[in-house]
Design goal:
Layout: H1 9-29, E1 38-41, E2 45-49, H2 60-66, E3 74-76, E4 82-87, E5 93-103, H3 115-120, E6 134-140, H4 152-176, E7 181-188, H5 211-230, E8 235-240, E9 249-250, E10 253-254, H6 262-265, H7 267-275, H8 278-281, E11 284-287, E12 294-299, E13 302-307, H9 318-332, H10 336-340, E14 343-346, E15 353-357, E16 360-364, H11 373-379, E17 387-393, E18 396-403
Parallel strand pairs: 6-7, 7-8, 8-11, 13-14, 14-16
Antiparallel strand pairs: 1-2, 2-5, 3-5, 4-5, 6-17, 9-10, 12-13, 15-16, 17-18
Helix pairs in contact: 4-5
């Protein structure tokens, strides 16, 4: 019986190498459970596991980047590092590391001055603010402080701080054009803070700071804007409506009352602080709803209503979605102020959209900064950010302008 000729040396070596690869793969496969590569993020802190590596000195910047985390924003807590080791390929030692990760730059470094004390120190404006029959409306919508989109918290803080100067400048420019502005309306349109989880998939990975620091920046920013507006007019009205990101949620659903909303609650301590200095801010009034998700105010014979916009049913056209909701309110009167309004201002949809028909006008506000890739993936375009402002007088609305 003839014997088969032996395999060429090259083939035999390839077989041996294949067996070695299988052995090495099994060795990595048999590493201790719980040391597999991955990240678990919980809003402001989390854990990272490297998976199998050859070095006993891991490059954490590379490890963070490989998991989609910017090393300029996230860092490893040095005393939290743990490791496991085992024999790897060719008898070399293999390692896997696990560590706590956190945000490098909390928002608390921004606007450090205490809100209450800054209001107490406020002084009455020496020069009497001009009076007049024209109203100036500022719609502060969809700041979503804490979201990393559009430059993240740092860019959001800069944009908010810029409003403190740009709003008085816009009012001054309009006065030079002949508009006698005697009343300023500062409207909180909702979604001023991002929240930390429960509003859309993977939100935890898109949040740079926790809820406390989000609300701190919102509160201090609102205070500075209201103080700036207070110096420009004889009367200032501050009002607010709740947005969906202001809800207290569990498993993606609001679990408390409609009025239990961060977008509304953040205005309450601000209003109380302003009440403590009536000499300087006695001309500043607040309209804060208890449960209602809309607010209305009479301006120069017109009824102007405000709502965040999340009560409407989404469609391919944001303006049409809100217009249909508005029509239903006119019939059912679930929101009387909205039903009777001839001007409706909303947010939620993150882009400027205007619709006017039958003597009524709808304005959808853009977001403070550019929204993320999820909007571009859906709509194919990026949005123009900004803060919507306009005038209202006897003839109606005018001077629509985005401060950016």
């Amino acid at each position: 019986m003839s014997r088969k000729p032996p395999k060429p040396l090259k083939d035999r070596l390839a077989t041996v190498q294949g067996e070695a690869d299988t052995t090495d793969a099994l060795r990595d496969k048999n590493m201790p459970p719980g040391w597999e590569a991955g990240v678990n993020w919980e809003g402001t802190e989390g854990t990272i596991s490297t998976g199998p590596v050859d070095s006993d000195q891991p490059n954490w910047d590379k490890m963070l980047s490989a998991r989609g985390l910017d090393p300029e924003v996230y860092e490893v807590e040095g005393d939290s590092v743990k490791f496991s080791s085992w024999d790897g390929a060719g008898g070399t030692l293999r390692f896997s590391f696990k560590a706590q990760i956190r945000l490098k730059r909390p928002a608390s470094y921004i606007l450090q001055e205490d809100v209450y004390q800054s209001i107490r120190k406020g002084k009455k404006v020496k020069q009497k603010p001009p009076s007049g029959s024209c109203h100036f409306v500022i719609a502060l919508s969809d700041w979503q402080v804490g979201n990393r989109d559009g430059g993240g918290v740092e860019e959001q803080a800069h944009k908010i701080a810029d409003l403190v100067d740009l709003i008085p400048q816009r009012i001054a420019d309009l006065r030079k054009m002949g508009y006698k502005i005697g009343h300023v309306v500062v409207a909180g349109m909702g979604d001023l803070a991002e929240g930390t989880c429960g509003f859309y998939p993977a939100q935890e990975f898109r949040v740079e700071v926790d809820r406390r620091d989000q609300m701190k920046l919102v509160r201090r920013g609102l205070t500075d804007i209201i103080k700036a507006a207070a110096s420009t007019a004889k009367q200032v009205t501050v009002l607010t409506v709740g947005g969906n990101h202001g809800e207290n949620r569990s498993k993606g659903k609001a679990y408390t009352t409609t009025g239990d909303n961060d977008d509304v609650a953040v205005f309450e301590p601000i209003a109380e602080a302003f009440q403590e200095n009536k000499k300087a801010y006695g001309h500043v009034g607040f309209k804060i709803p208890r449960e209602q998700l809309s607010m209305s105010i009479g301006l120069a014979g017109h009824i102007v209503a405000f709502t965040h916009g999340h009560l409407s049913r989404p469609s391919q056209n944001a303006a049409q979605s809100l217009w249909v909701w508005w029509q239903k309110q006119a019939m059912g009167r679930g929101h009387p102020g909205v039903a009777d309004a001839n001007i409706l201002i909303s947010g939620h949809y993150h882009h400027l959209n205007v619709k006017e028909q039958e003597g009524r006008a709808l304005f959808i506000c853009p977001s403070l900064t550019a929204v993320g890739e999820y909007f571009q993936d859906n709509m194919g375009v990026k949005t123009q950010p900004g803060t919507l402002t306009m005038t209202v007088d006897e003839s109606g609305w005018g001077n629509l302008h985005l401060i950016n």
